[in-house]
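Dear colleagues,

For the upcoming journal club I promised to circulate an example of a predicted protein-ligand complex. I picked one with pyridoxal-5'-phosphate because it came up in last month's discussion. The inputs are reproduced below in full, followed by the predicted structure.
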Amino acid sequence: MNTTKEMYIRQMGIDEKVYDYSQTLLENLKERFAKIDETAEYNQMKVVAAMQKNHVAEMHLNGTTGYGYNDDGRDTLEQVYADVFHTEAALVRPQIMCGTHALNIALSANLRPGDELLSPVGKPYDTMDEIIGIRPSKGSLAEYGVTYSQVDLLPDGDFDYEGIKNAINERTKLVTIQRSKGYASRPTLSVARIRELIAFIKNIRPDIICMVDNCYGEFVERIEPSEVGADMIVGSLIKNPGGGLAPCGGYIAGTKECVEQAAYRLSSPGLGKEVGATLGVNQSFYQGLFLAPTVVAGALKGAIFAANAYEKLGYKVIPDSTESRHDIIQAVELNTPEALIAFCQGIQAAAPVDSFVSPEPWAMPGYDSDVIMAAGAFVQGSSIELSADGPLRPPYTAFFQGGLTWYHAKYGIMMSMQKLYEAGILSF
Ligand SMILES: *Cc1c(COP(=O)(O)O)cnc(C)c1O
């Protein structure tokens, strides 16, 4: 017999008990998974429509070298992104090195000395600290005379409208709104909540630029923050929109003015969007965007499966097993260092690449405790691929995300439970 169950048990290292437990959970997830598939179908059509409208042609898959003048593939791709995100313009480049770089370009391009940057949703993602100068850093916005103010969310997670109103002054030029909770414990913002927040800010001062850090949020819903008033959305191509195929890169999509400023900052005043060779990446950028809605759906199913699996085993999971989803990150509080290590070793053991190595906790720059990271990815550091990490400190939370296919995400979670089971931490 060639059953899937036998495959897992005989070849994939999964105990029958872990397999059976997983299968029972899935019975109850059918309806939610069907909803995710419907969103993916809608977003797939959105991407195909944008490619057709812009007459994407075989020649666009080729690259340029040197200055990259007249790179039609690049320019057309940027128009495709603009159409998918419903913006006037977009900058989509392999020269944008990561999400942090994209955010740095977007901010430093649109702010001038004397301006103030406001975060109305609490402290942003760790790597933003140095961009802003929250932690003193060479080249920060603070060094260029851009000040920063922050309004935290209320204890119940709501926006502090009164605080935001008071924080806005005549120097406030740009508001940064982080959609995903990242590695914080606040809830991720839905596009509907972002709409409310932007409307509130624009009502006070319509000329304030509203930027959304869209990392991990693309294609989770049917609409993006750029459709509810954001002037600029920013993200990484080794997360959702690269579909697992983009080998590097980032994007900034938004108003013509914001994107033009960003282009001049990325390349040089006077050059802007006109330069930038794409070498050989155009095909993977197009094809990755084409696959992204399906890949995101697989990652979402994995996150929901993980939440259900671990919650029913007695662990605290964020978001919980029934919450609606607005990004692809799942946190599991594993309570002990042994459990966190076993979890990450399971994710690693399930990888297509480097499955035979075992991750160990290590000191990392910027962290005050050892960190363990699991990734066996085709693209270095890609977090749309199955990956997990966590700092070795209470409550020993594993942050888990990605999975290029649902089946692989599922296998990764099963393998994490398997390792906890083998270590005697879990029983079924
Ligand atoms: C990943 C991420 C970033 C930074 O992206 P890198 O590619 O790691 O530099 C910024 N903000 C959020 C919310 C993220 O998830």
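Two points we might discuss: The mean pLDDT is 96. The longest strand covers residues 172-178.

See you all on Thursday,
B. R.
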